[in-house]
Design a protein that fits this description.
Distance between the termini: 49 Å
Structural class: alpha+beta
Oligomer: single chain
Number of domains: 2
Bound molecules: zinc ion
Helix content: 40-55%
Order of helices and strands: HHHHHHHHEEEHHH
Number of helices: 11
Strand content: 5-15%
Low-confidence stretches: 1-25
Amino acid sequence: MTPRTKSQWIPQPFRSFAHSCFKSQANSDGQSPYRAFYQKLKTYPELYETFKAARSRINKEVWAKLRAEPELLRAKQEELRYHHHHRIRFKDVEVRSKSGTRALAHYHAHKHEEILVRTRLIFSWCFGVDVERSAWAREKLPRKTHCPVQQHERTYQFYACCGMQRYMKSAWQSISDPSEFLCNKHYAERGWNLAMPEGYVDVRTLKGIRKRYEELNPGPSSKP
Ligand SMILES: [Zn+2]
Ligand SMILES: [Zn+2]
């Protein structure tokens, strides 16, 4: 049997793991993103030294400094994106299919655990495939501690909750401190009580959420 290399059959939470993408990633002037970033970095001598001292690893401090320089941050994210695709592209087909199989086995072994069910449900309500409904859930529901935010494209960001950089499009932004973000996994990990909006704690379906919204906000203008 020929190994399956298509990523479509892997369930959503693990799809990016086996995801393969064959786009050419050199930037518009044909330069490698790695080079472009280093050239830019050298024009910030102090940051360059910090970066070297951290042995090119981006820890929390380096990320904070990078974030203060939008142009440099963009170059770094460009570079990380390139590496992401590069790594996947040059993975051997067999290795790629093995890691896909492993991810699938892991998914099926753990998919019924409450914490994973919760993570999946919350993700699908706020960042799901139904773009319109997800946007509605992101904007209309009263949030307790964090608001769901979605960017147009995936970017590399440092997530303090995970202690590492992650390549994502969706996150939860703290209401009290807008510079603080939680990934969906760590947001959902805090339990239904904190994760669900006020008055929706017992609801477990999007249909139920919309019904509850109508009950809590009577009147024609508030129809979801
Ligand atoms: Zn990709
Ligand atoms: Zn996290």
